[in-house]
Amino acid sequence: MPQQAASPSPKQTGTELVRIVNCRQAYPKESSTDLVVLDGVNLSIRSGEIVGLLGRSGSGKSTLLRIIAGLLPPTGGEVIWKGKRLEGPAAGISLVFQSFALFPWLTVQKNVELGLEAQGVAPAEREKLAEDAIHLIGLGGYENAYPKELSGGMRQRVGLARALVVRPDLLLMDEPFSALDVLTAENLRTDLVELWAEKKLPIQSILLVTHNIEEAVLMCDRILIFSSNPGRVAYELQVPFEHPRNREDMAFRQFVDRIYALMTRRAPVVSEADMTDPDMRHVQISADAVALPALPMNTIVGMMETLAADPLHGRADLPLLASRLQLELDDLFPLGESLQLLGFAELEDGDILLTPEGMRFVQSEHDIRKHILWQSMLHNIPMVRTIRAVLDERPNHRASAERFRDELEDSMSPNYARQTLQTLIGWARYAELFDFDEEADQLFLDDDPTDRS
Amino acid sequence: MSTGGQPGNLRARPNLADLLGLLAIMAGAVVVATAGRHMLVPIPASEAGTIHLNPAYLPGYAVRTTLRMFAALAASLVFTFTYAVWAAKSRRAGQVLVPLLDILQSVPILGFLTFTVIFFLGLFPGRMMGAELAAIFTIFTSQAWNMAFAMYQSLRTVPPDLEEAARCFGLTPWQRFWRLEVPFAIPALVWNTMISMSGGWFMVVYSETITVGNTDIALPGIGSYVGVAIEQRNLAAIFYAILTMLAVILAYDQLLFRPLVAWSARFQTDDGATLAAPDPWVLVLLRRTHLLRRFCLRVGDGLTRIGWLALGPRPSAPARALIPPRLMDAAWIAGIVVCALTLGWKTWTFSHAHYSAGQVLHVMALGGLTLLRVMITVLVASVIWVPAGIWLGLSPRRARHAQMAAQFMAAFPANLFFPLVVVAIVHWHLNSNIWLTPLMLLGTQWYILFNIVAGASSYPGDLLEAARNFHVRGWLWWRRVMLPGITPYFITGALTASGGAWNAAIATEVASWGDTTLSAQGLGAYIAHATVAGATDQVGLGMAVMAAFVLLLNRAVWRPLSNYAARHYTFD
């Protein structure tokens, strides 16, 4: 059940456009239980509001967006669109893509006209409507350009115009600004909010999927915070500010801080004990499935050194750290969680602080660092313990990587399993804990294992 | 990674996989030695061309056919590592060698037979060797140009930063070639070799029954077996041959093609572009063997050492040339012009003496007919395979199977199926001008399918989602969404298919069943008849006209089309 974390109750304005009831999305797997991407998702969107869906990559928010768009039927639950059960792509819902998804062989004009053409609108009217949309979104004069001639920001404007021209009731935006550079993204955000506030957009509501906390606070009236593994709505917040909003405003900053705190509150910690308990199976999916990000050791070390040095001295406010290091939410959280997993740092209330062990690591020479990491990995990551035990036991100190990947796949998708093992190998190589023979796809112990304890 | 010196090294102990591998190698050696001995025997006077239709002989024939294939492959590799390297390394040589290669690529390979048979039989009078070499040379011509081009292009596109690094470390030209340039070229080279070999099976089957003028030699092999089966109207024998060929291609596909392509992926410089496919079982098996693996590693080490030999000078500041380069260039170009003029004059006088204007016009008209045939077949094949390929390509699972099937079918020599069609034409008294035509594309249509599947499966998913979101359906979907996206792939496929079709014209416009001979009007039939009659000057004229058609078509139609598609219909 989503917790009501914000004090004011949601304003019951507007009519309900879409309602998602107990939605579940799972992919069948051969070996074990299904891989659950979304579970028990309930939400509704009313006319007149911008709703933000905030969560990390891989938390299933894009999947949810596609379910709402009717592009993907949910495995369980249902989507009610304007009072009727949704079957297939709905008229009145337009999608804006992270990758723009413009047809490279069509001009700006033709790209925008595509939706109208599919509706069978007469050419003359089509042209006029498209031109209006192009002008509205600030692309006048670029009608005959091909997408590849435009910059990223302008391409996304085309994507917007194409979505708006069919006059949808609901505009779905899938991380629309994350492929753009900072300045361009800001410019487009402001323009969009301005058009929305002036009621110039031919739409009733917007659902914005994002992993950028400030963006969500800047644009949305309501924010749904998504948790991962499986994706579900963890918190719901009403944003109490009027447009236009000011990032530097004290209240704004505090609101951002609060979301950071919420998002770090229940950090997933691995516990292999759950894995072996058959009755805990449905729980373990969220508990032990720490899919490790593709995070090289030197990034982790760099982060720890930054944290330990002046002026942070081992403790930092996450939003501040994010802006100082120019890191997005998607870079920062995996880093923080990996440090936490290794026992080198703690996350609490939107802050990150180095543990004594972390401090010791930073202050040590390279060889000692290897040793600290060696012990930390064996102590904190059950999979590493398993791997090492198997390798020690084998007479030739070799084992197929496939079997460990299979084991990981019990709790995550094959792609994440591959990535997780790869990250583990990278860390293990730093600590000289074990090595990997890529060609034979085998893990092995290098040289004599007795010179280390 | 060094494995030696480990206490109690258990990895060198032979295992079951080793035993299997050794047995396979020994069996292979025996087969090769036996077949090789046969090559050197004199042409048996009475036994000349005696091919037994008893299926028991077929495995032996299959081995002989396969060996010819590999002999040609070896020759092609030698050619690739000399000609292409020279063309890439020397600017001046490149000015001549590259256009020459372009022309050679357009010459119908089957036409060469006339000249090569006479040449090689003259070289080894009275021995099978001459005929063997002629057949091998034919296969060589079907592989070498394509491979040399791949090598040349790779050598010209070695990333400059790697080139600079090599120079920085003072690698000699020999070291740079083996440490940098060859590894960089391997993916393209392996892929093109495999494509060439697929085409080669067609040639080997065709070239085994060589009839030039009054020399008529049948080399023992699957092709000649089918030839005899046709002569004796033995339909069952043709089925046996097809089955045997299926086994051979299956072995080639599983034992060579897939492991090699998987292995070559290691040399891909742009990482992560291709989806990691599971390793083919042969590669997995090879890696499991202990002794064999060690042996391979040793051989690999030895080869690596050869690559490190410091042959040639270390890089140094460019020395001032004794003669100014401009002057050398002028002399070089003058030399080329003189040669070209002399050749042109010789050709002109020869043509003047041998061909009348009417004859040339007649051959060109025949060329037009064949052109029409090629175009129609490509069109018909496209109408069938484009929708099918898109349907297959849009599902990843279907796409993978379709790709494998198409690769397999492209390697299968289509000429083994020709007799079946001919039997049908003879039986129902069909018009051979029309019904012989589809044979041209029987073998090469798969390139269309293959490329369309590749195009559809790499079509960006978000564009498909956008189309669904905006309710783009039916004809509009084809016109605005799908067809433009696969156009570059289609052009590549159609280009390959039509190129193959020209070549196949010589083999398909004339066909026989027993003593019934069917013939269609066209340039291919003209060359085929002239070959049988041993009329060298007519074959020459036919080949020149066909090469001109192909060149013109490539320059005037395919190249502009593919440039246009590359500008307008590619993603990002």
From TrEMBL, chain A:
One of its GO terms (molecular function) is ATP hydrolysis activity. It comes from the Bacteria. InterPro entries: AAA+_ATPase, AAA-associated_dom_C, ABC_transporter-like_ATP-bd, ABC_transporter-like_CS, ABC_transporter_ATP-bind, P-loop_NTPase. Keywords: ATP-binding, Nucleotide-binding, Transport. The keyword Transport applies. Residues 18-253 form the ABC transporter domain. PROSITE patterns: ABC_TRANSPORTER_1, ABC_TRANSPORTER_2. Belongs to the ABC transporter superfamily. PANTHER family: ALIPHATIC SULFONATES IMPORT ATP-BINDING PROTEIN SSUB (PTHR42788:SF13), TAURINE IMPORT ATP-BINDING PROTEIN-RELATED (PTHR42788). This is Nitrate ABC transporter ATP-binding protein.
Automatic annotation (TrEMBL), chain B:
It comes from the Bacteria. Keywords: Membrane, Transmembrane, Transmembrane helix, Transport. The keyword Electron transport does not apply. The keyword Membrane applies. It is a multi-pass membrane protein. Residues 62-261, 371-562 form the ABC transmembrane type-1 domain. GO terms for biological process: transmembrane transport. The chain crosses the membrane at residues 16-36, 67-88, 100-121, 133-152, 184-206, 237-257, 330-351, 371-394, 406-428, 434-460, 481-506, 526-553. One of its GO terms (cellular component) is plasma membrane. It is found in: Cell membrane. Its main location: membrane. Pfam families: BPD_transp_1. PANTHER family: BINDING-PROTEIN-DEPENDENT TRANSPORT SYSTEMS INNER MEMBRANE COMPONENT. Belongs to the binding-protein-dependent transport system permease family. This is Sulfonate ABC transporter permease. It comes from Komagataeibacter nataicola.
